[in-house]
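Anyone have tokens for Dipeptide epimerase? Sequence:
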Amino acid sequence: MNIIQSVEVMRQSTPLKKPFKTALRTVYRTESIIVRIQTNDGRIGWGEAPATIVITGDSLDSIHSAIVHTFSPLLIGKNLLAYERILQEIHQSMIGSSSAKAAVDMAVYDLVSQYCGLPLYQFLGGYKDQIETDFTVSVNSPKEMGEDAIRYVQEGFNVLKIKVGKDNLQEDIERIKEIRSCIGSSVKIRVDANQGWQVKDAIRTIRRMEDLGLDIELVEQPVKACDIEGLKMVTDNVETPIMADESVFSPIQAFEVLKNRAADLINIKLMKSGGIYKAQIINHIAEEFGVECMVGSMIESRVAVTAAAHLAASKKNITRCDFDAPLMMLHDIVVGGVQYDGRVMTFPKAAGLGILDVVHSQSAVGS
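Reply: yep, here.
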């Protein structure tokens, strides 16, 4: 039997190369809780949960507390191969704490796929063995964003995700105009307002971008997360595909968005769904509705991004990826895991996540 023997949590903090700015926040460093779960046969599973208070409501302290005081007692002594029961108990043990749940979830999946001798993406479905990521342009002045866009294209990225929604609408239009003029027509542009627009303003702004021929691939979460009617109104009144992000944490929320045809696409993030277990359900529901999904990430290291990338590679219906966060970090804390060659991401042949170690973690903060 494969028995979970210990759960260790560590805190890490790593500066970014450049501040990451959206309509919701400005981030200067990645800060997350790293989870290390070990079984009685010596296998180690890795997980991670960043603090993203303005989106998930999870802080480093709340993540730590949930894992140490609520999840660890449920995990230790359990048979790993009953992972359906383990993950059900984790999700039922407390409301919220989706990031903490995700960290434990990915470590469990790491261990189960190791036991089966398969890379996690193959264990989950194995649809493809490499993926491509976009790169995000933080919201700044149009000139600075244009310069950043040129640099990212020169580094090999052919899809850019542009953050807007921070100032006035005309400034957002000028940002996209400047970027499109700087990078030409061959690079895809995705626009992410991070809930920064009002419904009618969103419709007017997107239509203006359409009239200007800015060729936007999609617009992500233009309105407040709770405003499903408003999201549907935007979707119904523009030609550009609309993607739901913060509006969808759970499978139930995904079903509501899809049932009402409130969005054309869904962005799944492990930190919202509480991990791979629920993320797969969201994707399957979307697939039945004929709606494609993207898998994205918060500002997190290659631990969490590796887990999300394995999920993205495993499913046909996941057609877009947003995994640039580790490339923004000044230092890489992960040994092994998914590897970057420009925008192309490849997976190690090792079983599980393929993560060998996590270094530079500040300190152990409980077990």
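The radius of gyration is 20 Å.
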